[in-house]
Specification:
Layout (H helix, E strand, L loop, with lengths): L1 H6 L1 H57 L5 H11 L1 E6 L5 E4 L26 E4 L2 E5 L6 E6 L8 H49 L14 H51 L4 H33 L4 E4 H18 L3 E5 L5 E4 L1 H17 L6 E8 L3 E8 L20 H6 L7 H11 L3 E4 L7 E7 L25
Parallel strand pairs: 7-9
Antiparallel strand pairs: 1-2, 1-5, 3-4, 4-5, 6-8, 9-10, 10-12, 11-12
Helix pairs in contact: 2-3, 2-4, 5-6, 6-10, 7-8, 8-10
Amino acid sequence: MGRRWKRAGLRGQLLLYSLLIVTLAVGLAWGGTRYALHRAFNAYRTQAVTGQVEATAEAAAELLLQGGGQARNLLALSRVTSTRIRWLDADGTIRFDTGSPSSLGGGPRGPLGRWGPMRAARLARVEGEALTRTLPGTLGQVEVRPVGVRGVFQPRDVAFREEIDRALLLAALAALGLAAAASWVGARVVGRPIERMSEAIRALPSHLPDPVPEEGPAEVRSLARGLNAMNRRIHRLERLRRESQGAVAHQLRTPLAALKGYLAALRDQVVPPEEALEQMERAVLRLDRLADELGRLNRAERLELGLALEGIAWDQFLAQAAEDWRLMAEGAGVRLNVSLPPPVTVEGDPEALAEAVGNIVENAVRYTPQGGEVVLRGGADAAFVWLEVEDSGPGIPPEDRPFIFERFYRGQEASRLDPHGTGIGLPIARQLIEAHGGTLELASAGPGSLFRIRLPRRSAPRQGTGGEVRPRPSSPGSAGR
């Protein structure tokens, strides 16, 4: 039974649970209604029969007080009122009984024939389902009992109750049928979104499905939103993978073509060996740098997929990052100034944030001319922390600004200032910042560049977190704008 229940599926289980609940509810309603109706009808009939018996007892006593010759009248009264009338003398002997033909003698020698006129009868009393009235003197008492099922109900009363039972049963069956149909519809309404999500999940290995409609109960809508977020993330990663493959192929093609060309030139002795070796060395260096950048890209994606969140002292983190990049700045003849925020804690992955901040600071130092300045300004409020990285370089041309966060994109000015760049530093930084629920934007419009990082103090990452990673700003390397 347990295995069959597990194999029933969500829709089947919802339907069975609904039917069970509805059956119990309808059964209780049917039983309660039947009990209440029967009880009310029994009380009504008992009250009506009691009044009828009392009136019959009064009439029978009056007939008996009139003297003999009343057998026919008592029989007629018994038939009309559906009662049984008995006369018992003072010794308890039955002198007359409409239910016993042998006691119905009504002639001069019969029991009723020997009665003389009676004066009065005392107050009647009810004993069980029979009502008795005491006669004067030693004449005894008259007893009147209703005739019917259990002494109260006539056959028509029993038929009426059976009709009520049939009507209640038909109503209960109709309610069960309607409830079963409603349960089936409800199971489809609730189960269909989950089935769509299940189909979407099964389709993930082979292709990226369309978004799942966010419908149904709140829990199902929340699950659908989570699945759609994962779907969008997979779409994004797949798009980035395709773009990266194309960009890497393009980046590899240039130095490989240079190597191939100069090897052919050496073989044909078209160019001097020293010049060929110099150009080939540049191509190899470019390939080496590209390999490093791909390694950094792989590490950034690994960090994004498994953020290790912990509390980070934002002021100390920025101070350490500035110290790690100060040596590079001094070597390039660039002043690196830091304006630290007040002590505040932010929740984040220190390795991922160090990678993002390092890429932006390295870009700022790399594109600032000798004698220029790079400023790091940190700040915080109750909900966010931020960092502004401003340089005094030439800035980013307006035509390049919409594309600077695309992987491997390099504008003409950036390629002129740094021919060996790969255009991967800013995309990695933005990817890691957004993984923390933050934003990275270019905020400058004139000469120089100003990048602003904004992070929620309680991070809301797009992916579950992994193990602990200690704060460690990345060491200076090659990022490339």
